[in-house]
Amino acid sequence: xxxxxxxxxxxMPDALEGPVRQGCREAAAAGYAxxxxxxxxxxxxxxxxxxxxxxxxxxxxxxxxxxxAGEVEMDAMIMEGSTLGTGAVAAVSGVLHPVTxxxxxxxxxxxxxxxxxxxxxxxxxxxxxxxxxxQLVTPAAKxxxxxxxxxxxxxxxxxxxxxxxxxxxxxxxxxxxxxxxACATSTGGITMKRPGRVGDSPLVGSGxxxxxxxxxxxxxxxxxxxxxxVASYRALALLPTVQxxxxxIHTTLDAMLRRVGGRGGLIMVTPDGRVGHGTTTTxxxxxxxRGGAGRVxxxxxxxxxxxxxxxxxxxx
Length: 316
What we know:
Layout: E1 2-9, H1 14-36, H2 41-54, E2 74-80, E3 86-92, H3 98-108, E4 113-115, H4 116-125, H5 139-148, H6 157-160, E5 169-175, E6 181-187, E7 208-211, E8 215-221, H7 223-229, H8 231-237, H9 239-242, H10 245-260, E9 264-269, E10 275-279, E11 283-290, E12 302-307
Parallel strand pairs: 3-4
Antiparallel strand pairs: 1-5, 1-11, 2-3, 2-6, 5-6, 7-8, 8-9, 9-10, 11-12
Helix pairs in contact: 1-2, 2-3, 8-10
C-alpha cells in the first residue's frame, strides 16, 4: 500500500508552508485510511483530492480562482491502471468536487471527458449541488483578480509560478493491496485565464496517467507545457529503464524545461509501492504514506517541501 499527494508547484510564501504541509498530510492520511481498510486505489486518490478540494489553501474546489470573466472554471481527472479506465471534466463551474464528477464520468458514461455546460449538466444529473462562485474563491483570490483586471493572460511562464497566491493544481497517486494503481488531479485554474482555457490537468498522459504495468503519476505546473510534453506518461515510460521513480521524474522535468521552457512538478507511485517526487518550480509540497500498517494520523505521514532555485535551460 502506498499513496502520495501534492499541493501544487508554485512560488509559495513562507506563511503558507505550514498550512499547505498540514493540508497535504491530512489528504494523504485520508487516502491511506481507504487503502488500509481494503479500499481501491481509485477510492483512495479520490478521497485524498476531495480533502484538498475542501481546503481553501489549495487552488481547487473552495480555493479556486477567477477567469477574466469573473467566473470559476475547474478541471479534474481520475484514472485507474487495470483497464486504463479514465474520466475527466474541463471548464466545469459550480462543482465543489470535480474529482468525484470525473470519477462518475469514468464509471457512469462511455466517455472519458466532458467539458463546459455539458459537464455542468452531467453534474446536475449526478446530484451535485450548484456551488455559488463566492463559495469557491477566497478573499485573496478575489483581490488578485481585481489586481489583474488590466492585464492579459499572456504572461511569461515563470511569472505564473512566482506570485504570492496559488495558481496551480493538487493531485494524488496510489497503489492498493491488489496491485492496482490510480491517479487523480484537480485544479481551480489560473487567475485571469481566458474563459474556456483548459490546461493539462484533465488530459490523460499530461495531468496524470495510471497503468498497472508502470505506475501512477500526477502533474502540477504550467499546463500548456505539461500538456505539450505529455509529462506524466513520459515519466512513467522511463521506469523500465531508469527504475527509480524520483530519477524518472527529474529526467522528465529537466527535459521539459529544456524543450519547451516550462516548469512543473510530478509525483509518482510504482506497483511495488515506491514513491517519487520532484519539481523545477521554486517550491512544491508533497506528503506520502506507505506500508501495511492500519489507519494513520496526519502527523504520522511523511511529508516534504521542495525549495529550489529556478534553473535556466541552456538553450534560452
